[in-house]
Amino acid sequence: MRITSFAGLNGSQTPIPVRDKAPLCNAIECLTLDSYGRTTGAPKTTRYKEEKAEVVLAPYVRQAVIMAGGKGTRLHPFSALFPKPLMPLDDMPVLELLLRRLKKVGVAEVILAVNHLGHLIEAYFGDGSKIGLRICYSDEDCPLGTAGALGSMIDELDDVFLVTNGDLLTTLNLERMMVAHQESGADASIGIYERDVKIEFGLIEIDDRKRLTAYHEKPQSRYFVSMGIYLLGREAVRPHLQANEYLDMPELLLRMKSVGSDVCCFHDNCVWLDIGNADDFARAQKMFKDQRHLFLEC
């Protein structure tokens, strides 16, 4: 594995003063899920007072790891020539949109974990100076899953860092997620999205004698799903990582949960698409072309 090293910025949790009569800050939703997939807890507003001036904590995450090594098998034949993060939405690769959003919320350093056609990603973005970021690359000798690459770079990471998949189109408010994570004191935060899941068939329920008990025509349910965006505490994840070990993010988070780590979920009313298949990719292309300003403004 090759990785270019740099010193972390170790961003401080510096309060930003607000004038005495300024509007109060909005509630920050930091939601957790029970065993049935329902949220527990309620949004809360935290205010800080200092010499009669109201202050709010600023986003403090300065470093991000982007998982960009997948083969994109569900996007074949497109992904045979381009790595999925370089798939174009109009005139801009999806990964460039993500990088620009990260820069706008204060992220300064990015590690791109690459494998499949990683040389094309490196050729396109270089050292990140054209976007205003410092970018380095972690080359995976073999696929390591959605969290395994962290094992070889853990000593290069800040106390708190962001991890995201490289093929997301979203308007998630990253500033609010960072502040919610900071206020909660959690070891990890997961960006979650409420999604409708429809079964395209009539759903049958039967009893133990195989007699019909219920018939639901094309039922639809709502679930919270992971957006593929996470905030992680370095020392909380360190015990669960090994260099060059295959590991997916769900397994990492469950390992953390099993030893008592505090794992929160953050829900935001936003747009989110994972361009993992041809239908979602086509929908993302149209959405970006029609509402470009939503994705370029934070």
Q: What is the total tally of β strands?
A: 18
Count of all domains: 1
The CATH class name reads Alpha Beta
Low-confidence stretches: 5-32, 35-56
CATH architecture verdict: Alpha-Beta Complex
Number of separate helices: 7
Relative helix content: 10-25%
**CATH fold-type name:** Spore Coat Polysaccharide Biosynthesis Protein SpsA, Chain A
Q: What composes the largest sheet?
A: 7 strands, mixed
Strand arrangement, major sheet = 10-9-6-11-16-13-17
CATH superfamily: Spore Coat Polysaccharide Biosynthesis Protein SpsA, Chain A
Tell the overall outline: globular
Quote the average pLDDT: 81
Walk me through what this model shows.
By secondary structure, the protein is an alpha/beta fold. It has one domain: Spore Coat Polysaccharide Biosynthesis Protein SpsA, Chain A (Alpha-Beta Complex). The protein has helices spanning 94-104, 118-125, 174-184, 234-237, 249-258, 278-290, 292-296; strands spanning 15-18, 32-33, 39-40, 48-50, 53-57, 63-68, 88-89, 92-93, 109-114, 134-139, 160-165, 168-170, 188-198, 202-206, 212-217, 220-233, 263-267, 272-274. The strands form six sheets. Strands 10-9-6-11-16-13-17 form a seven-stranded mixed β-sheet. Strands 1-5-4 form a three-stranded antiparallel β-sheet. A two-stranded antiparallel ribbon has the order 2-3. It is globular and about 65 Å long. Mean pLDDT is 81; it is low at 5-32 and 35-56.
